[in-house]
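@channel sequence for tomorrow's demo:
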Amino acid sequence: MSAPANVSASRLAETVGPEHFACDAETLAAYQVDGVMPSVAVRPGSIEEVAEIVRVAAAEKLALIASGARTKLGIGLPPSRYDVAVDMSRMNRIVAYDPGDLTLSVEPGCSLGTVLGALGEQRQFLPLAVPYLRRATIGGTLASGIDSPLRQFFGTARDYTLGMEFVGGDGNPMKSGGRVVKNVSGYDLHKLMIGAIGTLGIITRVNFRTYPVPASSRAFVAAFSRSNGAFGLRDRISQAALPLSTLEVFSPGTAALFSSEAASRAESAPLAAGVLSDREWTVTAEFAGVDVVLDRVERELRQLAEAAGADRVAVLASDQIAGAFGRKREFVPIALGSSPATVILKISVLPWRMNDVISQSGRAADENRLAWVAMARGVGAIYFAMMPGSRDEDARRRTAAAANKILSAAQSLEGHATIPWCPSEWKASLPVWGLARADFPQMRKLKALFDPQGIFAPGRFVGGL
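structure tokens (generated this afternoon):
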């Protein structure tokens, strides 16, 4: 970490105002990333201020890391340099909202809670049901690239982000996309910002498409003694093309996880009795609409579950869904809070290969004496959590051995795996961004194009970008 020269610090303080500039150790400790602290912190209040901060940083080769509520700063590698923390929490306005056009424009520091509250008044919502929902901000959610249970029906944030404004490495504000659904001009450069953990620029405004709140909803639960039955039902559901808003498969052990104190802290709504069992694999699906649609989907799900050999099925009414939905939305913080050294892998694989990769992952964890649970989204994204009982060297060694086997298994099945969450001190011995990628040269070129001075979160992304 290199301290900015006095002249640079003065320019930064002048840009945001002395009340929004800090250099004391107590304040800076809140912005540390994997134990690395910045030299100063600034809280810009406008796009113009963000642009000036970047221009100062580019001229002096200062490394910047932007953040909001800081719920996802643990994703990625430790920064190779970190001079200035750019706290975007002052830029927290809903800039424009047109319920009739189903469009919304917000600043990156706006919390998801604020956004969802404003949309709810108009019976609309945004499908960003992500972990740390009550604290997370728009900018951090998009930068992290974390997904939502609603991905099953609505896709990822790339599918309903219409446009974005951001500041690139030269300090100039840039725009991509637009504010309306019919926009077709320009390149979708803003989609590159989603999941880049702030290594390509600083997001300053986001335009979304919004959606009407459905009339009613139900949840369907089917339990199986073996994983192949559960994933067999997933395959049958996929072939039936049912309009499900969510679809997940949970491993045995998830019931205890979702009944834990960590789960109660993450989601206060109670979990309906009998939804999950620690001895069974469980398929959960949610669907929404008017009663005639709900009845048809429920009937077809029951038939599919019976054909797949389900041991039991259940249907939850609208007033029973919140606790179950909230827990699968908060799977990551619940798992992190359930072990002194939780390591969570995110595995992406073709959906019909999920049973194979989870079976191999489970064997790798078992061979290394590690407790584990898994949540598999119907689209092929798996969150596999290993939960050692301690944080000592033996636990690190066993966890690293299992993680390497899992990454190799995913690759052998034409998938890819990363380790978004693990103890900071273990990152040096874990392949955080997974095995080598064929597209890394292209990623390096994009980094050089967007950030020629290498000032945005250097070292944190794939290959140390």
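heads up for whoever presents: The mean pLDDT is 94.
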